[in-house]
Amino acid sequence: MERALTPKGAATRQRIVEGAAQLIRVRGVPNVGLDDIRAATSTSKSQLFHYFPAGKADLMLAVARHEAGQVLEDQMPMLGDLTSWRKWQAWRRRVIKIYDGQRQRCPLSALTAQLGNADPATREIVTTLLDDWHGLLAAGVQALKDAGEVDASIDADKAATAVLTAVTGGAGMLQATDRISYLEVALSEAIDNLRRPRARVSAA
Asked: Rounded to whole angstroms, what are the CA distances from 116 to 131, 167, 186, 193?
């Protein structure tokens, strides 16, 4: 459990985390050391280990939590207000723009690859992110159902899973191939599928 910090201490810690995140986005985890972070954030060695006693391991987890929060923050306010088709399309464009700009430098993916998803702390960060993301998407699908804009038989949770999988899968293929088209097509299809009428099964 993290110890309580004074407002000044919390601000200093956050400044270190944000500075480390900026370096990692540019250079990648393997090419960023504690000395680089200290120089970029004007932090002394004693300060760094005061806030991150285990050194780089602690700091990288803090950066991973920060970047996980940024994944959703970067999609706001669209992601939190998916109440119409126009807003769903605005969110889709926002997501594609974000990943098109990041390309192979998705900061959260770089961190989780370096830290390893087998680590319970890393897995918890990623799982919490995906659960929160899924919840916002499911709320958006439910809003469309409540407005009568999609078939009432659509399962909001399953639809949200399909959309989220399209984003994460498309982003993964983007990193592997540097082709944004995988994300564009997968996400567009997942959203368009919400609008397609469901087949009715008649009783025999």
From this structure: 19, 21, 26, 34
What is the length of the chain? 204
147: which residues sit within 8 A by CB, 6+ positions away?
A: 83, 84
Q: 1-40, pLDDT tens digit by residue?
A: 456 789 998 999 999 999 999 898 888 778 889 999 999 9
- Six-digit token string for 77: 């306010």
Cβ neighbours, 10 Å, residue 147? 11
CA distances from 132 to 54, 97, 110, 126 (A): 28, 21, 20, 10
| Nearest residue to 133 via CA among 157, 102, 97 | 157
Quick one: tokens of 83? Answer: 């109440």
> Over pLDDT 90: what percentage of the chain?
67
pLDDT tens by residue, 175-201: 889 999 999 999 999 999 998 866 544
Q: Alpha-carbon distance 137 to 142, whole Å?
A: 9
CA dihedral 167, 99, 29, 7 (to 10 degrees): -90
Sign (positive or negative) of CA dihedral 130, 131, 135, 136: negative
Which residue is listed with tokens 């050391």? 33
The count of other CB atoms within 10 Å of the CB of residue 19 is 19
Residue ranges of domains in the chain, CATH in brackets? 7-64 (1.10.10), 65-195 (1.10.357.10)
